[in-house]
Design brief:
The protein is α+β, with helices and mostly antiparallel strands. About 10% of the residues lie in helices and about 30% in strands.
Amino acid sequence: MVLALAVLSTGCLHHHRKSTSTRQPPLPTPTPSTPQPAKPGRARTKTPVTPTPVVQGEEGLASWYGRPYHGRKTASGEIYNMYGISAAHRTLPFGTVLNVQDLDNGKNVQVRINDRGPFIEGRVIDLSYGAAKVIHLNIDGIARVKLEVLGYGAEEGSTPASSSTSPPTPTTTTPPPGIFAVQVGAFRDRQNAERLKARIEARYRPVIIQSYDRGDGMFHRVRVGQESTEEGAEDLARRLRADEFATETFVIRMN
């Protein structure tokens, strides 16, 4: 069975490029690997009960994304506008308003989270093309940044801030409860995703397959667990790697 280790976001695989031109290079092809036989374990199923604390001052790499995602739905259900001011984050609630500071040039931009990603180790946020231009993202298409949570705005289904070029405005300081899962793989062939799902379900539940038309093909992502905290999902991710269901995992927020 082929397990794709390609890094794909909830809404898409977010990647960087070497300039801020709107023309982007071809997307990388998922790299396959073969999962090893499972070991005995136990199932875990949790439901969200308390608000998830948010860590201030998260630092890491920022990248930006544009086509082929422009004009397509984000993970929140909004339509992505690469020229607007928005961003993708793996675990912050939809509607979170952030200040993103470029640690190299000192420039800042305020963005609203409406998508999931980036699924590349070391990166903490994927900016829209419009937001990347505000902070003059460097020629490599990535920058060292610091994130500050300013508050929380409207969630998906409300006014589509993704289409706006104006800074978003937070309306509350209280984060909503979270539901977290672990993404263990993404496949072009749904049968491969179904086989991995069946193997994992013998030990961990729930396991779901979420399909997404990325614009250059349909991808099927396998996600495990329903944890009420990010820490619980991180623990689940460690056990999934130890049990050799995946060599690379990403904790994501499902809501």
